[in-house]
Write a structure and sequence with these properties.
Blueprint: E1 5-11, H1 15-27, E2 33-37, H2 44-48, E3 57-58, E4 66-68, H3 71-80, H4 83-92, E5 97-99, E6 104-107, H5 112-123, E7 127-130, E8 133-139, E9 142-147, E10 152-160, H6 175-182, E11 191-193, E12 197-200, H7 204-207, E13 211-220, E14 223-235, E15 238-240, H8 242-256, E16 262-267, H9 274-287, H10 303-312, H11 327-338, E17 340-344, E18 355-357, E19 378-380, E20 387-389, H12 394-414
Parallel strand pairs: 1-2, 1-10, 2-7, 10-19
Antiparallel strand pairs: 3-6, 4-20, 5-6, 8-9, 9-10, 11-18, 12-15, 12-17, 13-14, 13-16, 14-15, 16-17
The protein binds flavin-adenine dinucleotide.
């Protein structure tokens, strides 16, 4: 293998790398390429996406759904690869897609394995080597990829598609950052994103396992940073659910800077104002003044949530008759329903995160081609870059479309 020079070497057989491979295989007649993948199977992570259904992209796609150091790259990429273009590209590989009512796009079969199957089918027939790449060095007019077993793979063009540094069990282990750093690229601090948020709260033990529709709002001091509606899941020492995932990159970033005054406020009845909740509570009281306090939320909220709210508003004991609640106590309870507060305690577990926040500075990449501005002939794609998206298909959209664009650019440059 040492002597052969491939036209293209793709480092990483994940979402972005396999799209690049499938594209070259389909459109690059006579172009030789190799996929270098350190795991014993390609695309392991694709199979875990969207709870096994693979939320591939989203019909409501905008640069606002991404966090990055350079909006130009994401804007240009979305201009080239909108939702329809990406779906068309996959259709040309034989994959039919469909969207749900929220615009989230899935394979029609609702099987993540279908996405992997079509990508694998197109990239098969070319070389796939199970090796861990350690570095990429310029070697005359080509590049030498040095692998952990001491072997070297030579290629005229390199596509680096190694992913980030979260969910390491599915492949990406941060080794891509070492490769790009040796090439002179800047890698920003990497943090877990789209993950449960650890919180300090005396109420979590009793709430563990409960799910509730609510609005979660992240505050720094009194300043609202971000608000999301959705299903909250109370977990072990953590808040979880997609609405919390969407807040997690901001929480983790603030925690990593040492910010202290961070609060997640949970509104457990977002459809109602505080005044309306007071009226609901008052009508419950007038219905049966002799009921005990622990029955106040019966018929309104989950019993254990109701009890936690009452504890938090200092209105115990539960054996007390609800008719004895004062106006100010009713007001305090209603206020707690609208703003049940949790203090984030530590940065999310990277093994539970879906994506990496941070990576190679996007300003160092040509947004028209995905080629490195520092090392011509090297293309950097997917999660390795400092671009991370919201839940809803935005991360795979970025990985897939950057992989396609890099492959297309490689083919043009090889002509
Ligand atoms: C549980 C879970 C669910 C998710 N669900 C969704 C979803 O529904 N929708 C969505 O948009 N996003 C989702 N994501 C995020 C999505 O999986 C990633 O955004 C996407 O996989 C990134 O693609 P990538 O090609 O950059 O990296 P990866 O898919 O991680 O691929 C990188 C590949 O490179 C290989 N590799 C790494 N280093 C080396 C090396 N040095 N040498 C050789 N090979 C190497 C790895 O083994 C891996 O196969 C989810 C993530 C997780 C963990």
């Amino acid at each position: 293998m040492d002597k052969k020079i491939f036209d293209v070497a793709i480092v990483g057989g994940g979402a972005s790398g396999l799209c690049a491979a499938a594209y070259i295989s389909k459109y690059g007649k006579g172009v030789s390429f190799v996929v270098i993948e350190k795991e014993n199977r390609v695309g392991k992570r694709i199979l875990s996406t969207g709870n096994g259904r693979c939320n591939m992209t989203n019909e409501h796609l905008s640069a606002d759904n991404y966090r990055t150091d350079d909006c130009l790259l994401i804007n240009k990429l979305l201009e080239r690869y909108g939702t329809k273009k990406l779906e068309d590209e996959f259709y040309s590989f034989g994959l039919l897609t469909k969207a749900d009512s929220a615009g989230r796009v899935y394979p029609y079969s609702e099987q993540a394995s279908a996405v992997l199957d079509v990508l694998r089918k197109y990239s098969s027939g070319n070389e796939l080597v199970e090796k861990k790449a350690m570095s990429v060095k310029k070697n005359g007019s080509a590049f030498a990829v040095e692998c952990s077993d001491g072997s070297v793979i030579n290629a005229k063009r390199i596509i680096l598609a190694c992913g980030g540094c979260v969910s390491t069990k599915l492949g990406a282990d941060g080794s891509g950052y070492k490769i790009v750093s040796k090439l002179g690229h800047t890698v920003t601090k990497c943090l877990p994103s789209l993950a449960p948020v650890f919180v300090n709260s005396p109420y979590l033990t009793s709430l563990k396992g409960i799910r509730a529709h609510c609005r979660v709002s992240l505050y720094k001091g009194n300043k609202l940073i971000k608000s999301e509606d959705g299903e909250l899941q109370f977990a072990d020492n953590a808040l979880s659910g997609i609405c919390v995932f969407q807040l997690s990159p901001y929480v983790n970033e603030m925690l990593s800077k040492g910010d202290k005054d961070i609060t997640i406020s949970v509104d457990l009845m977002p459809e109602y104002t505080k005044e309306q909740i007071k009226n609901i509570l008052k009508s419950k009281i007038s219905l049966c003044e002799n009921s005990t306090l622990d029955e106040l939320f019966t018929g309104v909220l989950n019993k254990r949530i109701g009890q936690a709210l009452l504890k938090s508003s200092n209105t115990l004991p539960f054996s007390r008759e609800i008719g004895t609640l004062s106006e100010s106590e009713i007001s305090k309870i209603a206020k707690t329903v609208k703003s049940f507060c949790f203090i984030p305690s530590k940065i999310s577990d990277k093994e539970k995160a879906q994506v990496t926040h941070g990576g190679v500075t996007c300003g160092e990449i040509d947004p028209n081609t995905m080629e490195s501005r520092l090392q011509k002939g090297v293309y950097i794609v997917g999660e390795l870059l400092n671009t991370d998206g919201d839940c809803g298909g935005y991360n795979l959209h970025f990985a897939f479309s950057s992989g396609f664009l890099a492959a297309k650019s490689c083919l043009i440059s090889l002509k």
